[in-house]
Design brief:
A hairpin with a 2-residue loop joins strand 1 and strand 2. This protein starts with 17 loop residues before the first helix and ends in a 10-residue tail after the last helix. It is mainly alpha-helical and 375 residues long. Strands 1-2 form a two-stranded antiparallel sheet. The protein contains 16 helices and 2 strands.
């Protein structure tokens, strides 16, 4: 299969009317592109099931992962090679499902490290061992990249030596699935120079994702013990914008670009705005669940800014929650405006198509729940 730029028919990125973008790109019968998405979705779901079964990944978010790959992918009508559209959607679906499984693994880690309600004193080290195992040899590759460090006091080393007896079964599946995606990205490059960037960038995004997720869990534990232990809104958003996973998937999708390095450099700031949008709308959609779990969230940050207690107690109609939601929504709007301005400066490529659609669908899929398919 040739690289994306050779298979790509130029299109005009539409203005960022995200509701219209969703209407035009979700599976349906109104256009040839929508019909392709609707017809392809069952096949993608079946293929994703088979892939997940190889690595004992959960099937809980299978449908929405397949959906994410389909709606954010350049359709065959804009590609000379229909196989390219399939390959792109397949990689996005796999990366999305892997993210969901990793998120569940980390979310429930505290439960697995607790006995009779008492958290193991070694829980953080044990988590770092699992993350080191999942990242594996990609750690050294990631270290050769030039990604900015996370703005936290301490970036944990994820190159710990791990005894096989310490490895949890889920970690094995996550590691093998991650390396399968890595191998796919590695095979896409037309030159050694392109291969070096794609693989190093992929490894760097995977490392930053794991580090940021580790930070999320650590800071939520500190917050749960003492609500005064809340990071600044700027620190939270810049780090949680990585842990939401969009930069990691971006590292996968950019591997499909003929001019991957140039596109990455040109679009990096736009991608950061996209990641912050995804995090903010995710936090609004998951607020009640995360409030119950005593997790740090943009909404808890907003409550503190408003002078309200971050943990409540709150009801669905609490005015403090409505005010916090309005404050976070203003942040979303600010990031959307910056994203739209940046997007207008970018060349039209499969990656920028993915970036535009990803933000549009994130906005609507978190509007009425925690990342659910729109009607």
């Amino acid at each position: 299969m040739s690289a994306a730029a050779e298979d790509f028919r130029g299109f005009q990125l539409s203005p960022f009317d995200w509701r219209q973008i969703v209407t035009q790109n979700k599976p349906g019968t109104d256009s040839a592109d929508q019909q392709w998405r609707q017809a392809a979705l069952p096949r993608f779901f079946e293929d994703l099931q088979k892939w997940a079964a190889q690595y004992q990944l959960s099937h809980k978010r299978m449908q929405v992962s397949a959906y994410t790959g389909i709606v954010n992918t350049l359709p065959p009508g804009l590609s000379k090679d229909p196989a390219f559209s399939y390959h792109m959607a397949s990689l996005i679906s796999r990366a999305t499902l892997w993210l969901f499984d990793l998120d569940d693994f980390i979310d429930f880690y505290i439960q697995r490290q607790s006995t009779a309600g008492e958290l193991s004193p070694n829980w953080l080290h044990n988590l770092e061992l699992q993350l080191s195992y999942i990242l594996g040899p990609l750690f050294d590759l990631a270290a050769t990249g030039r990604e900015p460090a996370l703005p936290v006091d301490h970036e944990p080393p994820l190159n710990l030596t791990v005894d096989e007896a310490q490895v949890e079964p889920t970690s094995v599946g996550l590691r093998n699935a991650l390396h399968d995606i890595y191998q796919e990205v590695q095979t896409l490059a037309p030159t050694q120079e392109a291969a070096d960037f794609r693989t190093i960038n992929f490894a760097a995004q995977a490392a930053r994702l794991l580090q940021s997720m580790r930070w999320d869990l650590f800071i939520s534990q500190e917050f749960g013990r003492n609500p005064a232990n809340l990071p600044t809104p700027e620190l939270y958003l810049s780090t949680a914008g990585v842990s939401i996973g969009l930069p990691f998937v971006a590292g996968v999708v950019i591997g499909l670009e003929e001019t991957a390095l140039q596109t990455w450099k040109a679009s990096y700031e736009v991608m950061e705005h996209a990641a912050k949008i995804a995090r903010l709308v995710n936090d609004i959609g998951s607020f009640w669940q995360e409030l119950e779990e005593h997790k740090v969230n943009s909404m808890t940050e907003a409550l503190v800014q408003l002078g309200a207690p971050p943990l409540g107690p709150y009801q669905l109609d609490s005015p403090e929650v409505a005010q916090a939601r309005e404050l976070v929504s203003l942040s979303v709007q600010k990031e959307v405006e910056a994203f739209e301005r940046g997007l207008a400066t970018l060349a039209e490529t499969p990656y920028t198509y993915w970036l535009r659609n990803t933000v549009a669908f994130a906005l609507i899929m978190y509007e009425k729940g925690n990342y659910v398919e729109p009607e």
